[in-house]
Specification:
This is Uroporphyrinogen decarboxylase. With 340 residues, the protein is an alpha/beta fold. The chain contains 16 helices and 9 strands. Strand 8, helix 15 and strand 9 form a beta-alpha-beta unit.
Length: 340
Amino acid sequence: MSNKRYSNALSGIAQKIPPVWMMRQAGRYHKHYQALRQKHSFEELCKIPELAAEVAFGPVNEFDFDVSILFSDILFPLEALGMGLQYTDAGPNLSFAIRSEADLKKLKSVEDSISFMQFQKDAMKLTRERIPKDKSLIGFVGGPWTLFTYAVSGKHEGNLALPKTLTNVRKEFLKTIVQFLKENIALQLEGGAELIIIFDTASGDLSPDFFEEIVLPGVKTLADAYPGKVGYYGRGTTTSHFDLIRNIPSLAGFGFDHRWDLRQVFRSEKRMIQGNFDQALLFMEREEFKKTLINFLRPFRDLSPEERIGWVCGLGHGVMPKTPEDNVKTFVEIVRETFQ
């Protein structure tokens, strides 16, 4: 049970029409999600497997994406480890911050905390049952570095001075979180995921040297544990970052934000390559949006299927709140029309 186009992209098989899916395709912009959200909290939608499966089903059903993705959140491992977690209108709140060795001692062990994540495995199973058989299903975890920035600062943007300079605390935390994520990935794969993507949304803020020191070891550990089953997306990364991360042969592929020219990537990389239309442009008026999208796709159309092996068409980052649903639907339709 999988989508042939997505399987081809993961297997390096050339094809005319690329698979299409979007990060955050099940979320606040979508009336299906909004209707569920009126009745349930965000935590309930994530932690009650039947609800998580229904949220994930919505956009695949309405927009015909090739891929469904687990509906969840990257921060639940922090809650599992004992940091507490509440979601408010202002965003997520943790019960304490990791700033010292004393704070690290407050964390539960991986052995005592991983069972907390069983709801993701159950949600994965029910999502697989809910979506059509010809759709693929993937999962995700947060990048170890990104989770550390949340653990220290409560967010992953802005001034990351503390996460960058708490060297000893960071090293110890990363040991724990990488081991936790290794077990977390296993649960999602056991639930039926075909691929797990590491979403490392704070990695682009690191210099290449720090990226090599802080990000690479953990990602390599996770990818090596499940060769060909783990992909990596680092928001805001550059060619210097990619030249480092691509040297992990066990990674299944990579996501790229809208600042990349994927034609350059295709020339030297034949694994999965996901991206990368600018998500903000989905707010354009319908006809202008269609023209802009067609112009974006034209260079890809001019490539042969062999020259763009592995491409998964989507956005540079996730669908934004209040994005017009009609443009999301149009995106999927125009991509398929363009490459027929």
